[in-house]
Amino acid sequence: MAAAPAAAGSGVGRGRRAAATVAAWGGWGGRPRPGNILLQLRQGQLTGRGLVRAVQFTETFLTERDKQSKWSGIPQLLLKLYATSHLHSDFIECQNILKEISPLLSMEAMAFVTEERKLTQETTYPNTYIFDLFGGVDLLVEILMRPTISIRGQKLKISDEMSKDCLSILYNTCVCTEGVTKRLAEKNDFVIFLFTLMTSKKTFLQTATLIEDILGVKKEMIRLDEVPNLSSLVSNFDQQQLANFCRILAVTISEMDTGNDDKHTLLAKNAQQKKSLSLGPSAAEINQAALLSIPGFVERLCKLATRKVSESTGTASFLQELEEWYTWLDNALVLDALMRVANEESEHNQASIVLPPPGASEENGLPHTSPRTQLPQSMKIMHEIMYKLEVLYVLCVLLMGRQRNQVHRMIAEFKLIPGLNNLFDKLIWRKHSASALVLHGHNQNCDCSPDITLKIQFLRLLQSFSDHHENKYLLLNNQELNELSAISLKANIPEVEAVLNTDRSLVCDGKRGLLTRLLQVMKKEPAESSFRFWQARAVESFLRGTTSYADQMFLLKRGLLEHILYCIVDSECKSRDVLQSYFDLLGELMKFNVDAFKRFNKYINTDAKFQVFLKQINSSLVDSNMLVRCVTLSLDRFENQVDMKVAEVLSECRLLAYISQVPTQMSFLFRLINIIHVQTLTQENVSCLNTSLVILMLARRKERLPLYLRLLQRMEHSKKYPGFLLNNFHNLLRFWQQHYLHKDKDSTCLENSSCISFSYWKETVSILLNPDRQSPSALVSYIEEPYMDIDRDFTEE
């Protein structure tokens, strides 16, 4: 029983194998105890010492141990794989062994997905675990990378079929065994090498899926300029491959923290930006530039985004059919393979996919398909939806990057907007999508559904496209552009220059432009819909920037104001995000527009309605402060105009009368300053600081700034906490100077949105921060000496 296991082979090889085994077992004093093998292997993986691979055991010992532990012969197969995969192998036997290993792991991967969907308790998957534990993952990486090795000036080659087997086994192991994907992500040279395997159509899908998983957990973003011949690689992709590649690009061109952009404090973001300036462009920015340098890249993305799907949606079982397919097809690898078969067999009108019987082996973990297989129309539509949302995401990120103007120009030239307009009814906002298909384990309103995700990504793209850019008028058709010109002519105001400069050959065609279509579905959206937030954001971006009366009237004539007020007052909307987006949109729609205030007063025509409206405003000033700012600015302008129409609105509008009261303004001012602090300022709530500044700038214009500061001081004392508000405001203004004086884009936005020159903003802040305690407009004059606390460092707590 104590005898060492017999070594396989003979002669010198047997001696070396025995020596290696003894060295590996040294800490155990001879033969390892079976119960400790897995533990020792895991420790060896972590430390890089001791037992790390099957090759450190003899085949006899592994076979004996397998009888007890039921390892499905995987360690023995790995031992053979190691012996048949050396540099001088012909790899034929190696490939045969891989085909023995593959079904053992692919069935587990399929089971893993099934179990996950059923939300069952955690299950162990011994085959993939054993494969990894005995060094299978590292061995496959070495096999795949053999072509990078040169022998006597000639590079080694392995077949596409063998590469595909290796990739599928690696993917299945990543799916089932925790930690494998992260370990692969740490091998940067391997990750870069994987991109080269996408040159072959036979290995493209497996490679793309594995890369996507690896990049999803990689701590440091990969640099695309390190990928050999990137331009040639991407240029040679067909359209389907390029669409699939966009899933990988989504990870490589997005800044690591953009998902929580509004939640990160401005202090942290500013510190990160300073650090980035010293380090140069980020990896995401470098990757964006690398992609934009590829000839025809953006044009091909635009073609993918606007590609039509032939539809035959007359069947009553459309949604049920879609549900049946998507029940198990949420793996891109499976879906693409099935689509490929379907395209090859397009001459057949109907067929079905034959799922493998339980226990049957499957190459690459994909279901077997009959020679006459063709997917139903519903699956083709789903396939196109899944591609389009990835493509739209990439275009959206590029639109927000450093090369924004270049991307804008190309997107306009390649007619992305008219193309999306033509797809709006039939694909993007299909009638069937009300009961949108969802992933298992999620509900119908979850953003994980491809149908829902496509809509949100489409709305985000529109928001990025319209935001502070004159190309926003491409969202209209020729008739609608003429309507804008007519509005300006009737109001006797100059026509918007950007409208005059719009290339009419690039605008939307058909009866309605994309903006009008969006307004139509927005007004029909159910009260509880998650789309309301994104729809409002997209429309608001069209209005952002310098206020345009013609743009506002265009939207007012289509009933937008009444719809917003219905949602705020009558629909009992509870979502803070939706309310914030509607308040922001309402502010942009009404700002400086007498007609909008007349419409507001006509809708909010009772005290009861007005009180509901005020309750919504006051329930969260972080959400409603932009509306408060727009109404305050409008009131100031109206009071300085001599016009009967304006005078009538001033005398009748409940909202203007409410905002005009000094106690109301002071209440807003006090709360706006009190709910923010330097350490908690974010992109979302910094607007509260700017709204408080607007109130004080307008007071300064009327020479009432000392009065407002004195009233703030009294309010402090009434709260039995002297100095707490004005000290906080002083710190906030100091931060404001640091934040805005070095950001041209942000300062321009403040100027355009308020119609107050940025120099006046700066002057007002400087006056408030004047250290002279004798100045009637300096904050320090209203903070009593014992309570002075104005020199704090701006550091994260």
Automatic annotation (TrEMBL):
A GO BP annotation = hair follicle maturation
Of the GO CC terms on this record, one is: Cul4A-RING E3 ubiquitin ligase complex
Q: Note down the stretches annotated as region Disordered.
A: 349-373
Query: What's a Gene Ontology MF term here?
Result: phosphatase binding
- Transmembrane parts of this sequence: none
What is the designated name of this protein? Transient receptor potential cation channel subfamily C member 4 associated protein
- Which species is this record about? Monodon monoceros
Organism lineage string: Eukaryota, Metazoa, Chordata, Craniata, Vertebrata
